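Work Package 4 report. The design task specified in the project plan requires that, given a folded chain encoded as structure tokens, an amino acid be chosen for each position. We show below one input record used in the internal validation round.
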């Protein structure tokens, strides 16, 4: 474009020379001068447009680079999330296998010491609304709504008393070989209370049903430990809403699914 401008200027200079020596009429000179001005303006406008297009091109190229970097970051994040999902799924599947083995043991396989089984049955009779005990499988099933307030991992006073008494039974010399696997369960309702979400984050848990089920299992374990049961004899797990025993489409079903189970087994 600058070459065109220079050429126009060169032609005009030639015309001016011819005018000066009388070879070109004044009218033609004025017309050429006007045309030159118009061409110069058009050239300047084109040059300005080219500059603007260059700036836009540069900005678009920068945005494209930013978009590419963002896409790469998203791809890396997606790969990380998928890896984490696979790890969680694997861990959950393994936990499901453990739970099924505990829950589906043949009658009598638990084989708890007779004295311990009798004492736990007597304790269950004192708190019929709180928990039930299956001697054949060694399972204690606590009603979560009676054990905890909604969205809380703090054991209610009545349940605390019963669990403390259970701890005394399990801390006795007769029960030294008895191990406890404590598993928390929830219904399928999403954790939504801000206080519950804040609590779970403070505990380093996921702010969902999985995290809440873990927190409640650990709260029960803490009471057993405080009552004298060795830490090495206690395992805690959370199943979230993954192992319902009733439908989650009714209030009664949800109540049954919200529970904490303790499986007692004989160890070395």
């Amino acid at each position: 474009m600058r070459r065109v401008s220079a050429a126009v200027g060169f032609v005009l200079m030639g015309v001016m020379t011819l005018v000066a020596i009388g070879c070109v009429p004044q009218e033609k000179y004025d017309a050429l001068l006007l045309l030159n001005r118009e061409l110069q303006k058009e050239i300047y406008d084109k040059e300005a447009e080219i500059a603007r297009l260059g700036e836009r091109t540069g900005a678009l190229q920068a945005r494209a680079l930013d978009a590419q970097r963002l896409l790469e970051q998203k791809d890396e994040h997606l790969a990380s999330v998928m890896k984490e999902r696979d790890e969680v799924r694997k861990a959950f599947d393994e936990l499901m296998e453990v739970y099924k083995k505990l829950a589906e043991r043949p009658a009598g396989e638990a084989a708890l010491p007779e004295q311990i089984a009798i004492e736990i049955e007597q304790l269950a009779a004192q708190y019929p609304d709180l928990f039930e005990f299956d001697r054949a499988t060694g399972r204690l099933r606590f009603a979560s709504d009676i054990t905890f307030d909604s969205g809380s991992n703090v054991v209610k006073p009545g349940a605390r008393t019963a669990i403390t008494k259970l701890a005394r039974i399990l801390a006795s010399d007769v029960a030294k070989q008895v191990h406890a696997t404590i598993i928390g369960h929830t219904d399928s309702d999403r954790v939504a209370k801000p206080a519950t979400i804040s609590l779970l984050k403070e505990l380093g848990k996921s702010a969902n049903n999985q995290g809440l089920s873990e927190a409640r299992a650990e709260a029960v374990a803490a009471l057993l430990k405080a009552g004298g049961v060795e830490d090495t004899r206690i395992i805690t797990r959370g199943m979230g809403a993954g192992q319902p025993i009733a439908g989650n489409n009714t209030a009664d079903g949800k109540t049954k699914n919200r529970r904490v189970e303790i499986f007692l087994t004989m160890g070395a």
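The first strand starts at residue 131 and ends at 134. Validation will be extended to a larger panel in the next phase.
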